[in-house]
Amino acid sequence: MHINRTEIRQLIRKKRLSLSELVQENAARALKINFIQHIKTLKTPLKCRIGIYFSNDGEVDTSLLIKELWSRKHSLYLPVIHPFNGTTLYFQEYEENSPMTVNRYGILEPKLNCSQICPLAQLDILLMPLVAFDDHGNRLGMGGGFYDKTLARYYQENWQQPQLIGLAHQCQHVAALPVESWDVPLKCIITPEKIYQW
């Protein structure tokens, strides 16, 4: 039976949203530990520039990871929806006192300040949200295409930087996803239970 992308999104989002508060708390702690372990294996500077995001819609909570990365003196950058085209992302520095605003999806993002934007290619790591992932590193997003469109301008087969890493709950794993020409595969996806690498 063939399941399309919309049906997969609905199914996995429902699974993700049904996770209990305790499961979410444990997942956030385990994800933080797994990412900190993984970053030690990467060829990156001691103090990285890391693109990260605020969790939404039942995604694994990234708030513990954000605090841990700050404590290790990494620089963090949050996505800001492009003010003119509205379909791609800037990555702007995020500090504890950064002025924030709510975007059209009800998600907090830094108030746009062009002097604090980091060009995508200057990030060391980009952590990406996803709805589902499969055995080959394919990622299914929420459907807005923000990350795909942002990466499309830069992505090539020999892509080096930033290193693209997806974050997800284990329940978001499926055997195979229908793939479109614009999809950017990931070489690493981290869940609270496992680190997948291709």
Question: How would you sum up this structure, described in words?
Answer:
By secondary structure, the chain is α/β, with parallel strands linked by helices. The chain has one domain (5-197): Rossmann fold (3-Layer(aba) Sandwich). It is 24% helix and 21% strand. The chain has four helices and eleven strands, in the order ααβαβββββββαβββ. It has helices spanning 5-17, 21-39, 63-71, 146-152; strands at residues 49-51, 75-81, 89-94, 100-102, 108-110, 125-128, 132-133, 139-140, 163-167, 188-190, 195-197. The strands form three sheets. The protein has a seven-stranded mixed beta sheet with strand order 3-2-1-6-9-10-11. Strands 4-5 form a two-stranded antiparallel ribbon. Strands 7-8 form a two-stranded antiparallel ribbon. Helix 2 (21-39) packs parallel to helix 3 (63-71). It is globular and about 45 Å long. The model has no long low-confidence stretch (mean pLDDT 93).
CATH architecture: 3-Layer(aba) Sandwich
Largest β-sheet summary: 7 strands, mixed
Overall number of domains: 1
Question: pLDDT average, as an integer?
Answer: 93
Q: What fraction strand?
A: 15-25%
| Low-pLDDT stretches | none
Which structural class best describes the helix and strand composition?
A: alpha/beta
Radius of gyration from CA coordinates: 16 Å
SSE inventory with pairings:
Layout: H1 5-17, H2 21-39, E1 49-51, H3 63-71, E2 75-81, E3 89-94, E4 100-102, E5 108-110, E6 125-128, E7 132-133, E8 139-140, H4 146-152, E9 163-167, E10 188-190, E11 195-197
